[in-house]
Design brief:
Layout lengths: L8 E6 L4 H16 L7 E7 L5 H15 L6 H5 L2 E5 L7 H16 L5 E5 L6 H10 L9 E5 L7 H12 L7 E3 L7 H11 L2 H4 L7 E9 L8 H26 L8 H14 L8 H4 E4 L1 E2 L1 E3 L2 E3 L17 E6 L11 E6 L6 E8 L18 E7 L3 E9 L7 E9 L11 H11 L8 H20 L7 E2 L6 H8 L14
Parallel strand pairs: 1-2, 1-4, 2-3, 4-5, 5-6, 7-13, 9-18
Antiparallel strand pairs: 7-14, 8-12, 10-11, 12-13, 14-15, 15-16, 16-17
Bound molecules: NADPH dihydro-nicotinamide-adenine-dinucleotide phosphate and the ligand O=C1O[C@H](COP(=O)(O)O)[C@@H](O)[C@H](O)[C@H]1O.
Length: 496
């Protein structure tokens, strides 16, 4: 029988009235409770300025869980573990009262002084909160204390360093859990297993057999309500600096010598160190950007980015990025990793396509153009699984080949979707497993890679809008691959 380890802790959510807490965190904590991963020995304290009572807070938590999860039972029991403590986090005196509340809850719920401080707030507050938690004695409890930090971790390398120094003045690196929610996705975690648990892939996983790797993360949604953040961020900082580079490092890393946090992180860090740096003056050779104009997404007419609420009518912010990333190491020299991500694209989908090199001579296709390279497709979302594209004999013909697909669908295993990334990451954090969180070195190396690109783009006005909402991005993204003799493999559902 499997024994589930049930961690005990008080979780303090700074930014408890915000979008992230409501859409992701409360439903995830509920799923942990519903699935028996946490028992009765936990409490959640919400912090924000709004003058809510415990009752109003609990009603909000209940409604966000109901919105996210259809069959939600025992909600009253669940929300009875929630407490609300209103204050402005910049006001030092309020931390005294928070400390007393946490001590009381430790006693009431027998949480042994274990605490998670989850900063679901704008990064400008991270340093103040971390240092106040230290100065007012909230982190020295006799139990363990962990600080979870949301992205964005800085705006560039310099601001990320400053932020890191502020946080490190109060917390040790081992106590800091920098969330990249892509690392909580089932199939992103599966990359490592698919690669290193299969001899047929691992032996071919290098520049002798792979011609290129393509990672597409497309979104059909636009900027929604987040223009004030996104205008300053753009797709490069919002998606590439973190999620896309994390996927690159998992695809490219060497096998870890042990499955420990340190060993896995250390292999990922080596990949980031081997990224070929791009100088400002050569950005256009490797990267293209785009911004959506009006168009039609899934049959619905939508505005262009510049017409969205709180967006500048001459905005120079990119909503799409495509890039060619080179990794200058023994395994990957000469193999481009192409990435593309954007908002208001044709559909919501994240997929990785590994394209294998052609065999030297293929007698089984009459015409060279029919020859299909072998592809391994890793479906990250919305469907989860892998598809291997091979060639086999066409039924009842002579020796003529036809492409076939072998598919494995992860969703089908227990008839349920795999749990939300946040649920897994929160549980990992409670267990003290930081493997799927980003180390400071990864954050710093990723910023060092993207900074010259954002600097170059800040200096010139993009020729925007340059792709229609509902398309797969600007033409320049196709040209980026065409120059190398490749093309994007379609990532629509027909291609599974
Ligand atoms: N939303 C999302 O999908 C994602 C968000 N993130 C990141 O998560 C963080 C939070 O984002 P999100 O929830 O969208 O932001 P919101 O603007 O929706 O929420 C911000 C929260 O901070 C509180 N707050 C603001 N100022 C103070 C203050 N001085 N003292 C106490 N509380 C304060 C607000 O409550 P009140 O007004 O009541 O004080 C609110 O609860 C950001 O860093 C964001 O980049 C990352 C990935 C995805
Ligand atoms: O971090 C972010 O990710 C989401 C996309 O996440 P997904 O899990 O839905 O693929 C993106 O919409 C958002 O802009 C960005 O901040």
């Amino acid at each position: 029988m499997n024994t589930v380890h049930m961690p005990k802790a008080v979780v303090v959510i700074f930014g408890a009235t915000g979008d992230l807490a409501k859409r992701k965190l409360y439903p995830s904590i509920y799923r942990l409770y519903q699935n028996g991963k946490i028992g009765e020995e936990f409490a959640v304290v919400g912090v924000a300025r709004r003058q809510w009572t415990n009752e109003v807070f609990r009603e909000n938590v209940e409604s966000s869980v109901r919105k996210a999860i259809s069959c939600s039972e025992k909600l009253h029991d669940f929300t009875s573990h929630f407490y609300y403590h209103p204050f402005d986090v910049t006001n030092p005196s309020s931390y005294h009262d928070l400390r007393s509340l946490l001590n009381d809850l430790d006693g009431k719920y027998k949480t042994e002084g274990n605490r998670i401080f989850y900063l679901a707030m704008a990064p400008e507050f991270f340093g103040t909160i971390a240092n106040s938690l230290k100065d007012y004695g909230l982190k020295d409890t006799g139990g363990w204390t962990r600080l979870v930090i949301e992205k964005p971790f800085g705006h560039d390398l310099a601001s990320a360093k400053k932020l890191n120094e502020e946080i490190r003045a109060a917390f040790d690196e081992e106590q800091i859990y920098r969330i990249d929610h892509y690392l909580g996705k089932e199939m992103v975690q599966n990359i490592e297993v698919i690669r290193f648990a299969n001899a047929i892939f691992e032996h071919l996983w290098n520049n002798r057999f792979i011609s290129n790797i393509q990672i597409t993360s497309s979104e059909s949604l636009g900027v929604e309500e987040r223009a004030s953040y996104y205008e300053k961020s753009g797709a490069l900082r919002d998606m590439v600096q973190n999620h896309m580079l994390q996927m690159v490092s998992l695809l490219a890393m060497e096998p870890p010598i042990k499955l420990t946090t340190e060993e896995i992180r250390s292999e990922k860090i080596k990949v980031l160190r081997a990224l070929r740096p791009i100088k400002e003056e050569e950005v256009s050779k490797y990267f293209v950007r785009g911004q959506y104009g009006k168009g039609t997404v899934k049959g619905e007419k939508v505005k262009g980015y510049r017409e969205e609420t709180n967006v500048d009518e001459k905005s120079n912010t990119e909503t799409f990025v495509a890039g060619k990333i080179m990794i200058d190491n023994y395994r990957w020299a000469g193999v481009p990793f192409y990435i593309r991500t954007g908002k208001r694209m044709a559909e919501k989908s994240t997929k990785i396509v590994v394209e294998f090199k052609d065999i030297p001579m293929n007698l089984y296709f009459k015409n060279k153009d029919e020859n299909r390279p072998n592809l391994l497709i890793i479906h990250i979302q919305p469907d989860e699984g892998i598809t291997l594209h091979l060639n086999a004999k066409k039924v009842r013909t002579g020796s003529i080949a036809t492409p076939i697909k072998l598919s494995y669908n992860n969703n089908g295993i227990d008839g349920m979707n795999t749990p939300e990334a946040y649920e897994k990451l929160l549980y990992d954090c409670m267990l003290g497993d930081a493997t799927n969180f980003t180390h400071w070195d990864e954050v710093a190396l990723s910023w060092a890679y993207v900074d010259p690109i954002s600097n170059a783009w800040a200096k010139e006005n993009g020729d925007f809008p340059n792709y229609k909402a509902g398309s797969m991005g600007p033409k320049a993204a196709d040209e980026l691959l065409a120059k190398d003799g490749f093309h994007w493999w379609p990532v629509t559902n027909d291609e599974k």
